[in-house]
Specification:
Number of helices: 13
Number of strands: 10
Radius of gyration: 32 Å
Number of domains: 2
Strand order of the largest sheet: 2-3-8-5-7-6
Helix content: 40-55%
Shape: elongated
Largest sheet: 6 strands, mixed, barrel
Length: 389
């Protein structure tokens, strides 16, 4: 077969398909990995959680973020109202603020979470050093903080030495009593949980004089339908607010919305990557035309020995398909190797459907772009072909 006599040309011809297939498969695998990464991030924050947020953050269809924030600001009245939910395991108010942190002659920037001691079990936050603040410290406005590992790494050479030391936040001094284990995050524009600083809710009023609450985190019971509990939370909130002034959501809604947004973006990138498949197909067609021209005498001899037009057609068409499949298989192999390396840092993976699509697309490209030169070869006159110089 001509493919094996011109190995370098075969490889270079298949290169366009190789690049196209690997681009498409890798983009699909990164899209799948991104969905898994988002799910892991939300799972790490705890399960059975209901988020109560000011404004209507989801679109009417529920498939995207609306970007509409409300003028509504939660306060202690809402906290008291939500505490009336008898089935709620935790009702956690959170005041959030970006802050400047100073300590040990260094400066850093972090995210303050002024909240209650229930935040730690609800969000599966684990302690590395020291201790967590408790309910009496929340009630007494004790000036203590529990801090994420990235802030400590920048401010102190040895995390253990940071315990019981003081940090200045917005010009006020607070004592470090605990350091959390690494939680991760910060990827794709999301929050970096390891740069969070946790402070007792009432202590945080010194930085939040209006005593406003940014959002609530509510832990649902295991023995009650989750959707029913969410509806109870919503009914409690709309006693004071209009329905379109608040969002009562769970992690599944956030995951679905974020995944749909990235899914659309990923498909656009896949379409761009597919352009190289088109270029590769055109390259195969050009090379097959060259091959037909080079083998006109061979075609004439085959026809003289009894080969039919369909035999010549299938011969060149099979070579075109083999070229495409070779490029597709090499592209798939390259994708597997790249994903294998990336998996150490990011949960990308290649599913069976991506592999089938890659090889199927390669075959279709071979058939589509190979049929034109194959038909040209099949229609050559045997006598003219033998006489061809």
């Amino acid at each position: 077969m001509d493919l094996f006599r011109n190995k370098m040309r075969t490889f270079l011809t298949s290169l366009g398909i190789l690049i196209g297939v690997s681009s498409v498969v890798l983009l699909l695998s990164f899209g799948l990995g991104l969905k898994e990464y988002i799910r892991q991030q939300f799972d790490s924050l705890g399960t059975n959680l209901v988020f109560v947020i000011p404004g209507q953050i989801f679109g009417n269809s529920g498939s995207g973020f609306s970007g509409m924030r409300s003028v509504v600001q939660f306060d202690e009245k809402d906290f008291i109202s939500l505490k009336k939910l008898r089935d709620a395991i935790y009702v956690i108010p959170i005041f959030t603020k970006s802050i400047k942190v100073e300590g040990n002659a260094k400066v850093d920037y972090a995210t303050l979470n002024s909240t209650t001691d229930e935040i730690f079990p609800a969000r599966n936050l684990e302690l590395e050093y020291g201790r967590l603040f408790d309910k009496p410290e929340v009630d007494k406005k004790t000036r203590v903080i529990v801090i994420g590992p990235k802030v400590i790494e920048k401010m102190f050479d040895n995390p253990v030495l940071a315990l019981n030391k003081s940090l200045r936040i917005e010009g006020q001094t607070f004592k470090i009593i605990g350091i959390l284990k690494a939680k991760g995050g910060g990827g794709f524009g999301g929050p970096d949980f390891d740069k969070f600083i946790y402070m007792p809710l009432k202590t945080g009023y010194t930085l939040n004089p209006d005593k406003k609450i940014a959002n609530f985190l509510i832990k649902a019971p295991d023995n009650k339908p989750f959707d029913l509990f969410k509806e109870e939370v919503k009914m409690q909130m709309i006693k004071r607010y209009d329905e379109d002034e608040i969002t009562v959501a769970d992690s599944a809604q956030f995951i679905s919305t974020i995944s749909s947004i990235f899914g659309i973006l990923n498909m656009v990138l896949v379409a761009i990557g597919a352009v190289s498949l088109l270029v590769g197909g055109i390259g195969i067609m050009n090379i097959m035309y060259v091959s037909v021209t080079e083998r006109i005498r061979e075609i004439g001899i085959r026809r003289a020995l009894g080969a039919r037009e369909s035999d010549i057609l299938y011969l060149f068409l099979s070579e075109s398909v083999l070229l495409s499949l070779f490029g597709g298989a090499m592209g798939l192999t390259l994708s597997f190797l790249v994903v294998l390396i990336v998996q150490k840092f990011f949960p990308a993976y290649i599913d069976l459907m991506s592999s089938i699509i890659a090889l199927g697309t390669s075959s279709l490209i071979g058939i589509f772009f190979g049929v034109f030169p194959a038909r040209k070869a099949a229609r050559l006159s045997p006598i003219d072909a033998i006489r061809y110089e």
